[in-house]
């Protein structure tokens, strides 16, 4: 005879968050990429200052605002835990409470009178 397996207590790993180490590594990588783009913007501003002052000013403005955006993104915190797919939702029982009794505005006549 086979043993029946109770699957109601099974936890799906696909619904788990990533580890804290992976999350910190991901945020650090995003921050470093943002700072690399900022460095390129500042270098472009210096190199293009005499050639095309408008492009140099745009690059300088980009190099000024990118650190703010990078810090906000890096400090955004952990991602939300992914939800389980809809296929894991079991049977949804109907509500236990049905609709209430319908009453009329006129008072009910006592039985036998009418």
What do these coordinates show?
The chain has 114 residues and is mainly alpha-helical. The chain contains two helices and no strands. The longest helix has 28 residues. The chain is elongated, with a radius of gyration of 32 Å.
Percent range for helical residues? 40-55%
Class computed from helices, strands and strand pairing: mainly alpha
Main sheet summary: none
Q: What's the multimeric state?
A: single chain
Q: First CA to last CA: what distance?
A: 69 Å
Low-confidence stretches: none
Number of strands: 0
Number of helices: 2
Gyration radius over CA? 32 Å
Envelope shape: elongated
Following the backbone from N to C, one meets helices and strands in this order, namely: HH
DSSP strand content? under 5%
Give the mean pLDDT: 76
Distinctive features:
114 residues
Give the helix/strand layout:
Elements: H1 20-47, H2 53-74
Helix pairs in contact: 1-2
Question: Briefly, what is this?
Answer:
With 114 residues, the chain is an all-alpha fold. It contains 2 helices and no strands. Helices cover 44% and strands 0% of the residues.
